Amino acid sequence: MKLFGTMKISDNMVEVGGVSAQSLAEEYGTPLYIIDEEQFKNTIADFKYNFLSNQLKTNVIYASKALLNLYVANIIDESGLSLDVVSGGELYTALKAGFPAERIFFHGNNKLVKELQMAIESNVGTIIVDNELEIEILSDLLKDYKKSQRVLLRVNPGIDAHTHEYIKTSKNDSKFGVSIFDEDTIEIIKRIHDDEYLEFKGLHCHIGSQIFQEDSFLKESETMLEYISRIEKEENIHVEELNLGGGFGVYYTEEDKPFSISEFLKKLVKFIEDYSKNNGLHLKQIDIEPGRSLINNSGSTLYTIGGIKRTFGGKNYIFVDGGMTDNIRPALYQAEYEGIIANKAEEKPAVKYTIAGKCCESGDLLIKDIMLPKAGRNDLFLINSTGAYNYSMSSNYNRIEKPAMVFVMNGESKLAVRREEYKDLIANDIVIND
Ligand SMILES: Cc1ncc(COP(=O)(O)O)c(C=O)c1O
Questions:
Q1: Cβ of 372 less than 6 Å from ligand 1
Q2: Is 249 in the pocket of ligand 1 (CB under 6 A)?
């Protein structure tokens, strides 16, 4: 298993942030989400200090759908990054954490009226509008509130990046945004530009997630810059801000070959600076919106092994005390992970296992066919690179309690999310006696 950040092996045991897996399991129980705080902060710095320009304002926006809770919002706030939210719930969490509203970007293809009202009332900095109807609704609301609002329009540049079908977002029939190939989109831009309460700032796009080709992002930028140039020349509308979304691929297994973020960001900025200068664009600000690449490799999940089973067909299963409820990605997109028996970290692999969860679903498999030392009951199993889209996609299927989350750094651990208890599972149930 590839080790990230402060994760290391000492005396046959995995440790993260200077704390052993064994002591984390003893103190907090399992399953447990573990975040390597130093690694998270280093990754934030990597983005922040490599996405800089002398000509343009640059802005890194953390896509909070990857992982959000009060403590994550605090870390992002302290680092000076902006925050992307896509629901009233994410917005509520950010505001409760004291995140400055002016640094929030509010997304969504179907924002509810109550969510738009919440955004307006809390003075959210930027709303990314998705479609014409939403523009009408937002404009009417702003008229009632007598408030103006910075907006970006989400457009779809039609880049077909190589990634899983479900995480591609920029094909012509995507549910997100409006196509740059649709002539009506120009009319929508004019509509926003001429609105009394909407402040048209520019365009947003996002071509998908877990993308490994730098070229896809350069093509996205070029396509967007050409489109901006057309809007400026033909419509005489200035496009000051371009948000290129997120989607930078990360390592889960040896098959994933991420590019160097620091080198790529410098290349991207130079490309945009040159294009903008050579074509006399009025671009003032560029944004990127990474989620997965900011948090994923700082996270891991620790489980306790319960059962071990050899089937009649000869397959060896390890059963862990979590599963698709804390990590839906293998079942949802056939995502692959690496793992290790945390308390047998230096022992030689001897058996091929499949790691299965405890949910009542045959597809509840976390890792298929992994070579490990011989496992025993109560061994600890750690899956790496679970920082993004694990906790945020977790569920209570089978009425299983959601795990706790700890942040570890310099030999200390901090509980950021407490483990759910059975009573949490019935907290919203109503006893009906008729
Ligand atoms: C609009 C938008 N921005 C940013 C992201 C973050 O993508 P990633 O986590 O792959 O960086 C997403 C993810 O789907 C998105 O839809």
A1: no
A2: no
Q: How far is the CA of 105 from the centre of ligand 1 (A)?
A: 12
Cis peptide before 31 (omega within 30 of 0): yes
From 165, 236, 312, 360, the catalytic residue: 360
* Angle in degrees, CA 337, 289, 324, rounded to 5: 30
What pLDDT, in 10s, does the model give residues 247-279?
Answer: 999 999 999 999 999 999 999 999 999 999 999
Measured distance CA(90)–CA(204) in Å, rounded: 20
Tell me the mean pLDDT in the region 164-190: 81
263: alpha, beta or left? (left if phi > 0; alpha if psi -120 to 50): alpha
| 216-246 pLDDT, tens digit each | 999 999 999 999 999 999 999 999 999 999 9
Domains and CATH numbers, the chain: 8-36+296-425 (2.40.37.10), 107-290 (3.20.20.10)
Strands annotated E in 233-390: 241-243, 285-288, 299-310, 316-320, 339-341, 351-356, 365-372, 380-384
**Average pLDDT over all residues of the chain:** 96
From ligand 1's centre to the CA of 264, what distance in Å?
18
